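Q: A reviewer asked whether we had any structural model of the full assembly, not just the individual parts. We don't, so I'm hoping you can provide one. Inputs are below.
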Amino acid sequence: MIDKIQSKFREVFNSAQPEIVVRAPGRVNFIGEHTDYQEGFVLPGAIERYVYLAASFSGKKEITLYADTFGEYFTTSFTDIKKQKGAFWYSYLLGVAHFLQIPVKGINILIMSNLPAGKGLSSSAALETGAALLFKRLFNIKLNDLETIKICQRAENDFVGVPCGIMDQFISLKGKKNHLLFLDTRSLDFSYYPFPQNASLLVVDTGVKRKLNEVGYEQRKQECETSVKILKKIYPQLKTLRDLPPEPGEWEDFLPRPLRKRVKHVVSENNRVKETCKALKRGDLSRVGELLVESHQSLRDDYQVSCPEADRLVEISLKAEGVYGARMTGAGFGGSIVILCEKNKEETVISHILANYRTPEGEKPFYLKTSLEEGACEL
Ligand code: GLA
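A: Here is a predicted structure for the entire assembly that you could use as a starting point for your response.
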């Protein structure tokens, strides 16, 4: 890949080798969905698909970007960076440049990727963490990992305008080979869980494009915040839904529908993340599979962020031989599902899915058999 990047860089910028090449992975969230904006638990892993960035100083007073996927250039002066806010391909990277306050020194940046966008695999977070690493190295900016992750999240929240939590940026930077990452999104303490050696991870895309700036995500976030406000009347100490006990209690009767269902999801999902970690430690893959399915049902029925295509894909997957469990992954409203299956059964599972599922456009779905990988790094 590095050769391909270097020759593309020479071609598009008509220049010498790039001074630096970095890559940042996408992610799959194994379990812990829609919990990170209520200080809950998540368990994602970085996948073997990346956004690559290559750069050199240009001697000019502007930033020029080239997105290989679109075959498009974008140039801006430093003073105009803040005008590029929005959900455009260049905004993710420029948002990071803006919040890192990079010095005025012209650069050319090439963006290449084998991580498809719109499939719920966090290509945006990968672009942000890749950009942060690139700028840090080029300009010798001293920031620790946590500060870097927070800058990336801020770029997405306040520059791109998507009110996401911290999970995607965190895993894209802190991923570890063959491990899932358990993150407490309140304390930001994290630990790694080895992915079982006798199992495989599959990702299958519904073919329904999802955009995080769609209203659904923001609406759910709002519903959680409203619920916290209401519940403070009976639990004055409550800061976020994270503080509710796992057992249904008084709060159930206190909340109107659909808030009751939303809260039920968040509380039960936090519990499932912890249960999953315990089951992984015991090597109890059947239990892990059950928890994945329960998570899907909760996202479908209580949180209502799934879609008929994801429900169908999960149902089809669960009928394939060797599957422990499956669930929608990421924000929902389309995007991908994640499947845990026995090692060496991947082909059987994929053939079963390809024989039974077509995207809304009538095509075979995009799929990945993926290992878990390291976070963003320089190549
Ligand atoms: C998106 C957001 C994350 C998280 C998930 C849902 O991926 O970027 O912060 O909220 O949705 O779990």
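A: Points you may want to mention in the reply: The pocket of alpha-D-galactopyranose is lined by residues 29, 33-34, 36-37, 164-165, 167-168, 330-331 (CB under 6 Å). The longest strand covers residues 41-57.
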